[in-house]
Amino acid sequence: xxxxxxxxxPVGAGKSTLAAQLTQRHAxxxxxxxxxxxxxxxxxxxxxxxxxxxxxxxxxxxEQIWKVTCGLIDAGTDVVLELGLxxxxxxxxxFDRVDAAGYELxxxxxxxxxxTRRERVRQRNRAKGQTFAMDVPDAFFEMASxxxxxxxxxxxxxxxxxxxxxxx
Length: 168
Known about the structure:
By secondary structure, this protein is of the alpha/beta class. The protein has helices at 15-26, 33-41, 50-74, 88-101, 114-127, 138-147, 153-156; strands at 3-8, 30-32, 79-82, 104-111, 160-165. Helix 2 (33-41) packs across helix 3 and helix 5 (114-127) crosses helix 6 (138-147).
């Protein structure tokens, strides 16, 4: 049966790198929220009120990514997702959808020390290499890192969850 490979973790943990590896390993398309957001909405980003603007568009993108995911899974194709589900309640809503659809799910939870992640993000901003989607200023990195809610035992119970430390 086709499987959803969901990658979660704080900013700079290595999610996009793992997504590329899983794409190769499972011959699966990857659907990355940041790619959708940049392609669809970057030209329209306002100078102020960015968080409210972003949240509404993120929800719309995730809804469309879910529709595409369902089509792929129903056609027998694994899918690699990187959705930025940084809060437990939002992840639970996603898990409820997966469960209701009867899909197989593996969750990869990546993490590294804050200093390691901060340096990775700065390097990614400078290099603008393969995993670069958008500049992540230090202030945004700190805010997003503060918002990340780690998985706990309850959230992981009964699920195929793989915890991966990416500290080097």
